[in-house]
Amino acid sequence: MLQGSLRSGVAHRRAVFEVFARHLPHGRRYGVVAGTGRLLEAIERFRFSPADLEFLGGAGIVDPPTLAFLESYRFSGSVWGYSEGDCYFPGSPILVVEGTFAEAVLLETLSLSILNYDCAIASAASRMVTAADYRPLIEMGSRRTHEWAAVASARAAYIAGFASTSNLRARFDYGVPSAGTSAHAFTLVHDSERHAFATQVETLGKATTLLVDTYDVPRAVRTAIEVAGQELGAVRIDSGDLPVLARQVRAELDALGAAKTRIILTGDLDEYSIAALGAVPVDGYGVGTSLVTGSGAPTAALVYKLVARSSDADENSDLVPVAKRSVGKPGRGGRKWAVRHLDTNGTALSERISLSPPDPGPRDRELLAPLVSQGEIVGREDIAVARDRHRAVLAELPPYALQLSRGYPAIPTVFEDDGTVTLLDWPGRVRPG
pTM to 2 decimals? Predict the structure, then answer.
């Protein structure tokens, strides 16, 4: 596309692309924005090295004029987006990219590869946090996904409310709190379970978490308290009938005087199994496979679409709305703005999308924040801010938004075009309003 647009002369036309989802996966009621910070870092360092250019030219992939363009490529446009931790709904313009067509079109795969994964993970993680009902969650999915996806998932999960991660690179790169326990291999390599427990306590202190389901759980619990005393931090159960075992272990710990020793459950948990464990006396959960695969929705199904462009290369030319009309995937042309409309109690009522800058009322919250201005990153923020934002935004949604069952989006998306209103509801059906 870049080479063709350079040849036809449209490469330097001003263009606006938007990232949005036509629907939410699996009848979920909201999505969570994550990955924006990672995307800003990626845009800032997005360059074509001499080795890249040599490959592209040597393999005959692009011609000399295109190579010359790529050699000096720097994104000099502007980007707006929903802030990390905010929620989104069908049609929400969670990212708006404005620049020349040539500059902006090169960011499509970069943007979607980051946002589709991170939003999917954060959306699943948020549901798990809700299901856990304030019990802490540890992200433990590094062994179930690509090594760098593991870091991204730890970051996204933390934004959505997970307490910590077992991935130390996520702590090193992003400051995500880290935590973890030993594996069964640590117990098996020792001559006895008692020897393994004693070694771990000696090495890490009594606040550590001992894995008690390698052999016989009740016996392991007794051994753990004999070794560590009543000050043992926690025990972890990874297999078996978790509700039954957790109740037995709680009773055993209490009988041994270890009432403050916590119980952590792991083992192929997802939001549904976590919710089912709500009445069980446990103190936290570790989640791996289900989290890093989006709990059945490994992509947020976001798309990157051209919605407006100028008719020539003059940067002052008016933007013309453009959209495809294909059956099943119709577009909606024009650069968008968005506000979330709230009632008098601060509860969200609708996502309102317009083709002109909004004039927000006292109960409207503007959703698009500046992220890049003329090539300069202006939207950096700490993930702790995004984490706090997500907590506040969830509290803003109506109560049924937190239900795990399939349903419609928690609030409707309302498109206000030239005085007309269109409602978009799950799963992408358009209803004239």
Answer: 0.94
